[in-house]
Amino acid sequence: MSDWDAERYHRLSNPQLGWGRRVLERLAPEPNERILDLGCGTGRLTAELFAVIRDGLVVAADRSEAMIREASAQDFGRRGPHPIHSDRLSPRVQFVRADALHLPFVDTFDAVLSTATFHWILDHDLLFASVYRALVPGGRLVAQCGGAGNLARLLDRSDRVKARRRFAKYFDGWTDPWYFADIPSTIERLDRAGFTAIDVTLEPAPTTLPDRATYKEFLSTVCVREHIAQLPPAARPDFVEALATLSETDDPPYTLDYWRLNIQARKPAGVERAA
């Protein structure tokens, strides 16, 4: 996958931050917990988690080098009550570039928090097994990601634009870089990984952007960034412009048909820690 434009994402990701705050509320972190923010992005939600944990530890992980660089540049040190050990960072927050499928942690965290990330990972069996290993016995997973039906209208339109003569040749061999899981398959995979107390729900989250310019920038930065990466620079504005024109018929215009999959589960307290 292409890397993110982290500076633009940081500026545009208010919808993701809003969803993430609801996940953080469900997590209800305790002040002394060790928590993994998996898919931390540019650290906007990490900062709010960090402000709560006091004597605990936040490890923020993302596979994107650009995201980790942007997140670690945020002013976390001034948010906490403890002395700052560097210009910006507290020893209670650490940043790790890591693949969620192969996390370098075993029996480490009281909780794993993840928002707007799991749909970018195609193998959810391996994902949940990796998260399970990272949790201490009794630890909990609280996450949210794109679920079944997510952006179906937008992606149908992008398929039609991809097929236009000007663009079609650039999408030979295209495969979708996302996976929007449904409730039954997610429950089954969590159970197979060993989780209990499983709760999975799906909810609509339509999101209207304020104007055409913001809609186009949001699409190119977030929703169709992988499409854009396939195209030569000269063709990219026309691809996004075509999608914006199709969205003028939305009610209201420039509305993204998001669906969010909410996930909660727990690693059983009685399991033995890894040797």
Give an account of the 3D structure.
By secondary structure, the protein is an alpha/beta fold. The protein is 39% helix and 20% strand. It contains 11 helices and 9 strands. It has helices spanning 6-12, 14-27, 44-53, 65-72, 124-134, 152-162, 165-168, 183-193, 212-223, 225-230, 236-247; strands at 34-38, 57-62, 93-97, 109-115, 135-146, 196-204, 207-208, 255-256, 259-266. The strands form 2 sheets. It has a 7-stranded mixed sheet with strand order 3-2-1-4-5-9-6, with helices on both faces. It has a two-stranded antiparallel sheet with strand order 7-8. Strand 2 (57-62), helix 4 and strand 3 (93-97) form a beta-alpha-beta unit. The two termini are 35 Å apart.
Helices and strands in order:
Layout: H1 6-12, H2 14-27, E1 34-38, H3 44-53, E2 57-62, H4 65-72, E3 93-97, E4 109-115, H5 124-134, E5 135-146, H6 152-162, H7 165-168, H8 183-193, E6 196-204, E7 207-208, H9 212-223, H10 225-230, H11 236-247, E8 255-256, E9 259-266
Parallel strand pairs: 1-2, 1-4, 2-3, 4-5
Antiparallel strand pairs: 5-9, 6-9, 7-8
